[in-house]
Structure formats: C-alpha cells, structure tokens
C-alpha cells in the first residue's frame, strides 16, 4: 500500500472535483480518453443512467495522499446484473449459481455502456505510478471482500494494465475486439 495514503469510496462523482478526477483519468501527455472524464461519468450518474436503480451503483475508489490530494482513482460499480457491460458473462453467472453461489452483486470496474478500451487504475504519470496502481488494486480486492462479492471485473483494459493484473494473480479474460483507425482518410 502507498505509504500514508488513504482510500475512500464515494457513491457519486459529484463528491470529487472534476479537476482532481481528470488529473488522474486524462492526464496530460497520455492518450486522451473522453469516456473517463469526470463530465462523462458524472453525466451518466446525473441522468439516472448509471445509478443504483439501474443496477450500476457507483462505488468509486479514491486514493489520496497525506495532504488530501487525489493521486489515484478507480471507476467502480456494484452490479446486480450484467447488462450494459458489453461482456457476456451469463454463462459464468449460471455456472456460479448452479454451484450454489450468488454471482450478483459483483464489482464492475469499467465505463458504463461504453465498450471503449482505457485505463481503469487511474493515476497521474510519474515514478510512483506502479505503487499507486498496486494500492488501487489492493483496494478493489478489499472492497470486494468487505461487500462479500463474488468477483471484481476489469473490462476493456489497455494491454499494460491487463498484464499487470495478471502479474498480480488475477484471472485474465481474453476476447476479441475490432478497432477502426482513421489513417488520414478524408
């Protein structure tokens, strides 16, 4: 765990400043991802699209240093279904329940209704990035344990974070996704 850091869970992006969130979610010098921006995620919550009522209960993790500055974040949701994830895990859910377990609720680390690849362990670039990501990952695991959840799912990760989670012993899902790149076509 990051020394002298504090992890908090918030149930709405309205509880954190857009500037603090975006500094970790869309830092300068990194590929820009509009779906991780505070404005986009907050709009999903404010519109009623990603709320407890729709099965997307926000449980965003914030990692703050001893001065109270945000140094890392995770967009996370407690889910009581698998709709809106663009990952089809109904077979896993059925098997889990046939074995006597409850697959739901589960923890979903993603952007609701958006099958776009992007980081899910959000940090500013810098020498502490790996340590911050490790702390965020440990916080995700702890949140799943505290809520007695069946699982935590990270979806549409960039390869670097996908590999990192595997290096920490998490099961790595493989799938196929198609991307179109506009290479200066008019």
Structural description of this entry:
By secondary structure, the chain is an alpha+beta fold. The protein has a single domain (6-167), classed as Gcn5-related N-acetyltransferase (GNAT) (Aminopeptidase, 3-Layer(aba) Sandwich), CATH 3.40.630.30. 28% of the residues lie in helices and 17% in strands. It contains five helices and eight strands. It has helices at residues 18-25, 38-46, 90-98, 129-146, 159-167; strands spanning 6-10, 56-58, 60-64, 70-74, 76-79, 106-109, 122-123, 152-154. It has a four-stranded antiparallel β-sheet with strand order 1-3-4-7, sandwiched between helices. Strand 3 and strand 4 (70-74) form a beta hairpin. The longest helix is centred in the last third of the chain and has 18 residues, at 129-146. It is globular and about 45 Å long.
Strand order of the largest sheet: 1-3-4-7
CATH superfamily: Gcn5-related N-acetyltransferase (GNAT)
Oligomeric description of these chains? single chain
- CATH T-level fold name: Aminopeptidase
Helical proportion? 25-40%
Topology at a glance:
Elements: E1 6-10, H1 18-25, H2 38-46, E2 56-58, E3 60-64, E4 70-74, E5 76-79, H3 90-98, E6 106-109, E7 122-123, H4 129-146, E8 152-154, H5 159-167
Parallel strand pairs: 6-8
Antiparallel strand pairs: 1-3, 2-5, 3-4, 4-7, 5-6
Describe the structure in brief.
By secondary structure, this protein is α+β, with helices and mostly antiparallel strands.
């Amino acid at each position: 765990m990051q020394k002298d850091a504090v992890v908090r869970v918030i149930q709405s992006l309205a509880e954190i400043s857009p500037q603090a969130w975006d500094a970790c979610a869309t830092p300068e010098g990194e590929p820009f991802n509009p779906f991780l921006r505070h404005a986009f995620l907050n709009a999903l919550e404010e519109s009623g699209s990603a709320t407890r009522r729709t099965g997307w209960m926000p449980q965003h993790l914030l990692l703050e240093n001893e001065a109270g500055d945000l140094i890392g974040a995770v967009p996370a949701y407690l889910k009581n279904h698998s709709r809106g994830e663009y990952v089809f895990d109904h077979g896993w859910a059925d098997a889990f329940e046939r074995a006597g377990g409850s697959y739901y609720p589960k923890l979903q680390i993603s952007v609701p209704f958006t099958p776009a690849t992007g980081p899910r362990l959000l940090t500013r670039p810098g020498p502490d990035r790996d340590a911050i990501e490790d702390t965020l990952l440990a916080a995700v695991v702890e949140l799943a344990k505290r809520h007695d959840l069946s699982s935590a799912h990270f979806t549409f990760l960039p390869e670097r974070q996908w590999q990192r989670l595997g290096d920490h012993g998490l099961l790595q899902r493989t799938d196929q996704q198609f991307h179109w790149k506009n290479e200066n076509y008019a």
